[in-house]
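[job 4471] stage=fold_predict status=RUNNING
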Amino acid sequence: MRPELVFREEDGRSAPLLVWRLPGAFPTISSGPLGGGIGPRRWVINATVPMSYDRDDPDAHLAEMATGLGLDGPGAGLMTGVDVARMIETTDSGVRVWATVGLGKPIQAAVPEPVEQDAVVGTVNIIAYVPARLSDAALVNAVATVTEAKAQALTELGYAATGTATDAVCVVVPPDGEPQQYGGPRSRWGAPLARAAYEAVFIGGRHFSSDPVAWSDR
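[job 4471] inference complete, writing C-alpha cells
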C-alpha cells in the first residue's frame, strides 16, 4: 500500500498520477467515478486532470489510464485538478491515509440553494488503508468517519465548510481475517482512521490554503 508517482501525457503535457498496486484483490469502498461502490479491487489510481476538464466519461478515461499503466482486473479510480505530486501521507496505529488537498472554495453541504460560486474548483481526495478486514457495514461507516474527520479539519482551519463539491473517498482493507463490525470514530479501527484523515487534511489545508495547487497553473 505504497503509492507510486508516475506521469502520463495529458493535453500535450506531462500529468502526474498516483497508483497503488495491491498484492491481490482487496475489499474496497470508493466514491470515485471508476470502480465505485464496494467490492474487491486490485489497484487504485488518483489522477490529476486539467482544471478545464470537461469529459463526460471520467470512468472510461480512468480505465484508459489504467490500461496504459498495465493494470488489470478490477480497480478504483479518482480524479482531481490538484497536483497529486503534493500528496500528504499520515499514519496512526497501522492505518495509512493519503490525501490530495485542493480547497478552492469549500462549501457547506446543506444550503437552501446551491449557488454558481460553489463551482470554484477544489477537490479533497482521500485514500485510506486500514490493516484489518472490515464488514461491508463497517466500510460504509469508515467513509463517514473519514468525512467527519475532514469536516473537523476544515473547521479548525477556519473554514465554515464541510468539504468541496467534488470530494472523494476510497478505503481499502485486507481480504483475510474476521470482519470487524464497526468503523465509527470511537471503534477500534475507526478512531485511528479519523485521526489520520484529520491530520492529512489539516496539513494539506494549512500548507496549500493560499494555493489551489492546480496542475494547469504549473
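[job 4471] summary: Strands lie at 4-10, 13-30, 37-48, 75-80, 88-92, 95-102, 123-129, 168-172.
[job 4471] exit 0
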